[in-house]
Amino acid sequence: MFNLWQHLQHIKHYYYVSTPGPESVMGWKGTGEGDVTTSYPRESENSAGEKLYFHESGTFVLAANQYRLDTNNEFIWQRIDDGRVRLFHSRFGRDNQVELFDLIPQPSTNQWVSEASHLCGDDLYSGSVSLVEGQLEFIWQITGPRKDEHLHYIYKE
Fold it and tell me: CA angle, 128 as apex, 13 and 36 as ends, to 5°?
């Protein structure tokens, strides 16, 4: 089983493919790529467990018309212990972070998987992380009345 926390700290770049499923009405089919800047909170900000700020900055290109969007996104990873990493999204700021889910190791598949799905409105978010050829592969599944989204991220040093 690979050490997710150790690999996260060395990530510098990302690439992803967004593929809507047959039930999606969102239409976010395309590709994105960019850079990841990692940082750590000041000691006074750090609650239980180590945290890692994971700021993504790049572009997303819609497949239908090649329209290019600048993107900025920040996740916060928190190492709870050797067998649990919690993922937050800072869409409302670092002081108002949204807890997404805990990732726990699944040795039978050599993956870290979401222990439970995150409910956002009517939508469920879940994910799994694998180590493939030295890169982190993060697969997101988002399902709901209007969403059937599949995001395939590759994070690399």
Answer: 15
pLDDT, tens digit (0-9, with 9 covering 90-100), for 57-80: 999 999 999 999 999 999 999 999
Question: How far is residue 74's CA from residue 38's CA, in Å, rounded to a whole number?
Answer: 10
**28, 20 in Cβ contact below 8 A?**
yes
Q: Which helix (H) or strand (E) holds 137?
A: strand 135-143
Report residue 85: phi and psi, to 5°. -125, 125
- Decide if pLDDT at 44 tops 70: no
Assigned token pair, 114: 């979401």
Task: Name 71's Cβ contacts closer than 8 Å, sequence gap at least 6.
Answer: 32, 34, 56, 57, 58, 59, 60
Per-residue pLDDT, 46 = 52
Asked if CATH classification 2.40.128.20 holds for the domain at 4-156, the reply, yes or no, is yes
